[in-house]
Specification:
By secondary structure, the protein is an alpha+beta fold. It folds into two domains: about 150 residues, Jelly Rolls (Sandwich); about 190 residues, Collagenase (Catalytic Domain). Helices cover about 15% and strands about 30% of the residues. The chain contains five helices and 19 strands. A six-stranded mixed sheet has the order 1-16-17-15-11-14, with helices on one face. Strand 6 and strand 7 form a beta hairpin. Helix 3 crosses helix 4. The longest helix has 19 residues. It is elongated. The two termini are about 30 Å apart. About 40% of the residues are buried.
Length: about 375
């Protein structure tokens, strides 16, 4: 997942060609008039119960004795379908299978608890797919969980879908697992799966407009910022100067430059399935992007905050829209150099049109509290 520079146009999660609005008006009309009838097993209320685009107006999903609900609906431009999955308990296993049956819809899905807090989305590697499935184990009880479906941000697509939701009850909740994160300032050849290969120079304060003799001080500020951001959580922060651990660890590399990005991570790894993933902070991208030239302290805070942002992705966090939040992706770079935290705040529109992300709760459920 990327942290895109404010000074260039912000891309959608995966670049795609956008058609003219007039074309999509015709497409949307044809979808409504020509969508084939669904399998008789599938509920049809998603069309007859519009609008159902909020948690309050959600359609109640009907589950058969096996714990399966068959849902059918139609997404027009800007539309959202929301289903009430009922009460779920910690340990329940939710499996979602979605298939587009008509039109050019590129769907995105998200599940929320009764407070509108994000539980899970379809994985990053399914972005751009018209058929996908995913599953996750519920971490906390809630009298209602909601499943939302919409078009991917920026795609202007529409169509009908069939959705199968299966709930298996009374499973075991995965225990939170501590995470080690190593901050790598040494450079070298770095290969990140599904992202690319990078040849990074060793980090120097000169990369961001300061004197080379200030490098150690700047690294210390970056480390302190990073460690303070994760202070409540069971995350051990090391640097490449420390003895490397025997346990699995993730790496945040500092080096290089990208014309469009401040940083990039290997994945949005919900509930930290992979404790050995990586991210890069493109330090050269932090030059001449602030409203006023930053002090050394402010630059260190900015680099530490963006590093924490990318580490948040590696622990399963998505983008939000809040300048005080570490996972923000919608405000100018000046926000980086201020005090930011992992917050409960609204999701960025690029992730899903409604709902919030409770980053502290997700981190507690994923890594637990620091001893």
């Amino acid at each position: 997942m990327t942290y895109t520079r404010w000074v260039v146009p912000r891309p959608s999660p995966l670049p795609r060609s956008l058609a003219l609005l007039s074309v999509w008006v015709v497409v949307a009309a044809s979808v409504v008039g020509c969508a084939p009838p669904p399998d008789p097993r599938f509920q049809r209320e998603a069309r007859s119960s519009e609008p159902n685009n909020t948690f309050d107006s959600a359609i109640r999903a009907s589950f058969d004795p096996s714990g399966t609900a068959y849902l059918w609906g139609l997404i027009d431009l800007g539309d959202i379908d929301v289903y009430d999955l009922g009460s779920l308990q910690a340990g329940d296993h939710v499996r979602v299978q979605l298939e587009v049956t008509f039109g050019d819809l590129l769907p995105t899905t998200a599940i929320f608890d009764v407070e509108g807090r994000l539980f899970v989305t379809n994985p990053v590697d399914t972005v751009g797919s018209r058929s996908f499935e995913f599953s996750e184990i519920v971490r906390h009880d809630s009298p209602h969980y909601f499943l939302g479906i919409a078009e991917e941000f920026g795609t202007q697509t529409a169509g009908s879908y069939e959705l199968i939701v299966t709930i298996t009850r009374d499973g075991q909740v995965p225990a939170p697992r501590a995470q080690i994160i190593v901050l790598d300032f040494n450079g070298g050849r770095t290969v990140i799966d599904d992202v690319g290969t990078f040849n990074l120079s060793s980090f120097s304060a000169t990369d961001v407009g300061f004197d080379d003799e200030q490098t150690d001080e700047l690294i210390d500020i970056i480390y302190q910022t990073f460690d303070e951001n994760f202070l409540p959580y069971d995350v051990v922060v090391l640097t490449t100067d420390d003895q490397q651990p025997d346990e699995p660890y993730s790496v945040i590399h500092f080096g290089g430059r990208d014309p469009d990005l401040f940083g990039i991570s290997e994945n949005i790894d919900f509930y930290n399935r992979d404790p050995e993933d990586q991210a890069i902070i493109f330090v050269g991208s932090f030059v001449s992007v602030f409203g006023t030239e930053p002090t050394l302290e402010q630059m260190g805070v900015a680099l530490g905050n963006v590093g924490s942002h990318e580490a948040g992705h590696l622990l399963g966090l998505n983008h939000v829209s809040d300048p005080y939040a570490l996972m923000d992706s919608t405000h100018p770079p000046d926000a980086f150099r201020e005090n930011q935290d992992f917050l409960w705040t609204r999701l960025a529109r690029q992730i899903f049109p409604i709902g919030t992300q409770d980053a502290p709760l997700l981190l507690y459920e994923t890594v637990g509290t620091r001893p």
